[in-house]
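Revision sheet: structure tokens.
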Amino acid sequence: MTLSDHDDCDPSEQSTDPSAQGRDEGGAGFDELLRQRRLAAGLTQADLAARAGIGVRTVRDLERGRSSRPQRTTVALLGTALGLTGSDRDAFLVAARGATALPVGAAAAEPAGGTPGAAPAVADTAPRTFGLPAPVQLIGRDADVAEIADLITAGPAAGIVNLVGLAGVGKTGLALAVGARLGPAHPGGVAGIVITEESSAGEVLAAIATVFGVGRSADLAARLAGAQALLVVDAVERAPDAVAEILRSLAASAPTLRILATGRHPVGVPGERVWPVAPLEVPPAEAGADLASVARYPAAALFLARLRQVRRDPLDPGEVSALADLVRRLGGLPLALELAAARGRVLDLNEMLDRYGDRVLDLASRPATREAVAVNLRDAVAASYRLLEPGEQAALRRLSMFRNRWSVELAEAMLADVPGPDGDPVGTSDQVPLLDRLVALGLLSVRGSGPYRFRLLDVVRDFAVEQAAAVGETTSIRRRHAMIFARLAGRIAGELTGANLPAGVGRLDEVSSDLSAALAHSANDDPHTALFLASRLPRWWRFRGRDVAGRQWLRRVLDDPRTSDADPTTRAWAKVGLGQLAAEHHAGRQELPAVEEALATFQQLGDVAGELAAHTILCRVWTAAGGYDRARRHGEAVLALASRTSRVRDMAVAQNNLTWHEIRVGDLRAARRRLAAVDQLAAQCGDDRLRALTVANLAEVARLDGRYADAVTLGRRASAALADLGDPGHRRRVLGTVGLALAQDGRLDEAAAVLAELRARPAGAVAEPCPADEPDPSAIRELPPGYGACASIEATMALRRGDRELAAEWYAVAARTYATGHDLRDVAEALVGLVATTDDPPERTAVRDRLAAVCVEGGITLLPGERVLIRSSGAVPSAQRRTGAPAGTQ
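Predicted:
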């Protein structure tokens, strides 16, 4: 059988008629060969049938080409009846089974300048290609073609490179492209064969001799002598032992022959260099939703190319996201992409994703003819799965539980007691050979240089999950998976403070999908593990803006009666996490009892770290609840306990939190002293993030003190540092300080630029933008309090331009927006501005009364500049403040 032509899909897996394909390539098929042998023996069809013990109709059908693939026993009987032996018999059997690749585009029967079997006249003969169809244009494989070609030519004169991978990954198309590229470097010719099932060593050798134009296998060495040649051997897994025997023989007898093989597994011969063929690159989740961006990725480009063959209409913009999701779900496997694209005749991409997104293994092609067999993704993966030993299959089933990329360390934990080839558990020996074997078989991809660089192909993972369910392992594997990630989260949780916070968050980000899966599975099956895992994630949830979802998980596992007897420390940390996350969306008061219970538990157990965390959260939650004296007592308790136990960072955090209370009572000098202590302590413990937050808070104090230029300088410095540290939330808050200071200083163009940045939707944000243009109370009534900064900046800019009426409207918006938050100091400053811009006496009196009530409720002492504004209503306010609370550190 000649190598067939197929772009990015392994032709060894396609349904074809080998004999017919051979005839299409221009050579004599088995029908003609049988007729010639019969006539040479002087036999009629009836005579040959009688000698072979088969029906005369069988002989007649074979000679007429009606039977494309005769039974192996029938051909053997015919060969015996014709008296064929040795290489003649091997060539006859090969031709019958379609394994002989016939010459294409050049006469191969007789090398130029010599007799059959002689070495070619190299100096006078251009490179020739035997048995290889012309390669088609590949998509996304240019780098692979170049690297494989370099690997072949840079290797020994008689070298073997084996392209290994899953069925349908594009091994044959890649081999054809490499063969065409290397033609000029191989004056002895480039030829190819496809191995058929159960081929013998003699049949393989006869096929190789045929494609190089040699009548007898014994003459092959002479034919290949003196000139470099390249042989492409496709589908070696069909007869691995026979292929290995012949390749070892050729390495000794034909030292100028290079071999490029393709298959689902290595051949296992000396000097073999294995090249795992990876699927095509898929667009990442952040690739964007425009077609041009998505189509730049090879997997999407191939899908679109195949889609155009069955669908004329261009993609609708609403299908682009589905395109990206679909090719990611198909894992970039060319066969999967082509099978899915074929559905485009009936389905649009959104329908295709809904129908096949969760069952890609069901994708299959319809047979082109009655004799052909459907190509099915499940069968393609199953063929590679069957190559594994039982212990390797068990390992693959366990590894399938990983949702995304994973590390050697995580694999070791998952495989701790899986029996290896030697009978010992994999985890007690080196598991790298197992991973290497999975890579060599094309089941496992390795990308990147970090620890989390391993990933099963999506279709392989789906298949292994099915196999785990079939043997009843799913529950036990999920339980192990959850325990492993609970331990990992427990180790990283201790790093989620100070200078280590960004790195720790990044490590959890890399396994976020596995953390979610582990939590979902264990919440149902193993609630104690779920409780432990959830109790270690609040800081990460908070940093990533997932406070609502995180709080829901903690409440679910804490309320589960099966966790009532869980470790008291674990339950206490979960309760602290509840308060921490609830405070983020202004629901901290609801979790006060839980956090106070946690504090009592930690005090009873003598857990200093837990006690400090509980006091800190209670300080924050009581502040939000209006219990300012209690909040201050908890803050002072943190400072005392941290000082007593020499915990430098906790001392810095306590000082930073107590700064807000100094601002609340109007003591800016004390606030600056505390912040100076915070900066010194943060430097001592190397906490760059805390130092950046200290600078942000110093900027706010400078603004409140009327030193607007200093506030801008400090705020911009803090903003740059927070951007480098990857803390967008606090950076947004300090931008509010900068924008308001600029407006108060009369630098309106600069203030407008900051306002535009605040209004811009951050990448991935789901919140509505800040109010713009004219204030609309009905539209902004439900805005989060963080958007009060925009309204305060608008108000100050309007006042600077002399538009007191518009300024009053914006101050009213700011006051209403801030009122939904936890910081009444924000509300007070907005109301001061509203008093100063309200001209109607009764309305101004009502606003003053409301301001007085807010000050009483929040224990707020107005600053001197604010008191001046209250006494002289109508004056331009000089100290409207965006947010009195220092940037948080928990």
